[in-house]
Amino acid sequence: MARLLLVVGIGCVLLVAASKPAAASDDVAALLVFKRNIYEDPLALLSDWNSSDTVPCLWSGVSCSPPLDGRVVTLELSNSSLRGFLAPEIGSLSSLQKLILDHNALMGSIPRAIGKLQNLTVLNLSTNQLVGPIPSEIGDMRKISTIDLHANRLNGDIPPELGKLTNLVELRLSNNSLTGTIPGSNDSVMVTTSREDQIGLCQLAQLTDLDLSYNFLVGDIPTCLKQMKRSSMVGNCFQDNDIMNRPVEQCENINGTDTDHIRGGSGEKNMTQPLWLLILEVVTGVSLLSILTLCAIAGLRRCKARSSGDSIPWTRAISWKERTVISIDDDLLGNAPKMSRQELAEACEDFSNIIGSSHETVVYKGTMKDGREIAVVSLSVPVHYWTNYVELYFQREVVEMARLDHENVAKMVGYCKESDPFSRMLVFEYPTNGTLYEHLHDGEGCQLSWPRRVKIALSIARVLRHLHTELQPPFAVAALTSSSVYLTEEFSPKIIDFERWRALVAKPFLSSGVIVNGGPLNGVVDPRHMRFLDVQTNTFAFGVILLELISGRASLSKDTDDLVDWARRHLDQPEEFSKLVDPKLKNVNHDDLGIICNAVNLCIDAEPSRRPSMNMIAAILEEGVDTSADTALRASSLAWAQEELAIS
């Protein structure tokens, strides 16, 4: 019997010892996903997070307990200037006790997987840019004592599940956009009953520090919270008139809430207004109506005057912005040679060889004197539309394109900028084997065997990884589709971002005079935030291209369903992956198919913040699909022809 107990004891020790490396590797994997979702780290705090490490205990911001046993208990990166999204994989840090990421620029929603952190005691995500509701799964973190989410952009109701957190001492949700009522009983009788009989925040016996100020909360403050500091409730829309609320006009339309309810009085009471206020409202209304009538009459007269003058051309008023002289820094364009219109006219047969056109651009094909095939994108914009601000945007985009240097991006050969005649042109190398769309959907697709399609998918994944994660700042393709992927004679893909230039000269943009992709100008959307949104869009677009490669179907067609909607019916069940395969394909590797379908599922997630980075997608494909020499050989045209001869 003693011998049996000894054997069992040794087995348990060995089992625990064997589980530690696995648990540590789970923590490493989760933290690396967290790092990949951070796209700006100006202080390089995550530079020592190395995928080759077996334990993360010496990484910046990471602590383990006991030291070096491999289980992460603290992740603290306050005031680190990090910009990115919270990865759902953070919920895999099962031993985590403190998650402190305040004073950064984290965006997106709080992942629901955060509720898996059963050992967490401190959660501080304050002073970020988080949006969306507070996930109800936070109520599953039974050991939590501090939750600080103040100074974000969170909305929705306060989840009543917070009432399950019996150890909660501090709850800070101020300076957000939370709406609805505070979850808790307003029955004064229930204050004297046990906590178990109460609901919502009234169940929190340990709660001593609560701050709900400066949201858009309505209704009554629960009686159980009346003892909290009055300052913790100010700046809301409560019915309680003893609290300093927001101005009524800010509260009137919150989720369609009735104004009378917010003001704290009955409908009959609010209908009684002072006489002077009623007179003021009538006078104001009559004055506004008179002004609008005069404006309408003046507008009609101006329209008639214009229509009667046949020979008077329409001219646009020049604003002070357009008079601003904006010059280009020649040093910035060192990698983009300036080319003359005459040189391009000779290459493109006097601009007669048109291969594409739209309202905004015309694309010409040409051949340089050294034999290089080129595509010339000419922007179709009259000179009177071309403001100084649009010129600045054009110059910056030239600089953006000039820094791209990857074998799967069509190289920008140069640009043309002349005044007489007014010309703005971009010159790219031109792969002559057509687009991926044409090979998949306009022809029979017989030249695109399964190995060749896999090779194209890997190449696109790698170039997107380079553009999104290896370039600083990241670069996103304006419209990534199978039509923007051109193929060389060897079927190597090259991306040409024609759509970027079409967006540049779209009339809404021209008339606005607003720079939308960079520049320290007032009122401009944060370009880094926009870049990340564009990167997430690229990830979705790559998932669509993978579906096109697998199925041979176009993303949109009048004859078939939307490709993504159709594919989602089969992607949730691995046994149905084969239903996605192009009937023209032979010898499909089903292991590769499974890997690619799983990657597609990640890319086309409806919630952008849950889509992984292209760094992760490329790694999944590189590690999972068959890229052996034999496979590559089967992809070549010669091997394909030899195989056909052998069969015949």
Structure description:
This protein is an alpha/beta fold and 648 residues long. 35% of the residues lie in helices and 13% in strands. It has 18 helices and 22 strands. It has a seven-stranded mixed sheet with strand order 2-3-5-7-9-11-13, with no helix packed on it. Strands 16-17-18-20-19 form a five-stranded antiparallel sheet, with helices on both faces. A hairpin with a 7-residue loop joins strand 2 (62-64) and strand 3. The longest helix is centred in the N-terminal third of the chain and has 35 residues, at 2-36. The N and C termini lie far apart (73 Å).
- Average pLDDT rating: 77
Distance between the termini: 73 Å
Q: In terms of structural class, how would the helical and strand content be classed?
A: alpha/beta
Largest beta-sheet details: 7 strands, mixed
> Low-confidence stretches at least 5 residues in length (pLDDT < 50)?
4-21, 188-193, 255-272, 305-328, 507-532, 632-648
The count of helical stretches stands at: 18
Radius of gyration from the CA trace?
A: 31 Å
Biggest β-sheet: strands ordered side by side in the sheet: 2-3-5-7-9-11-13
Keywords, separated by commas or semicolons:
7-stranded mixed beta sheet; 5-stranded antiparallel beta sheet; 13% strand; 648 residues; disordered C terminus; alpha/beta; 22 strands
Summarize the structure in short.
With 648 residues, the chain is of the alpha/beta class. The protein is built from 18 helices and 22 strands. It has helices at residues 2-36, 248-251, 259-263, 267-271, 275-308, 320-323, 341-347, 388-402, 436-442, 450-470, 499-504, 507-512, 527-551, 563-571, 590-603, 614-624, 629-635, 637-647; strands spanning 38-40, 62-64, 72-76, 83-85, 98-100, 105-107, 122-124, 131-132, 146-148, 153-156, 170-172, 177-178, 209-211, 218-219, 237-238, 354-357, 361-367, 373-379, 412-419, 422-429, 485-487, 493-495.
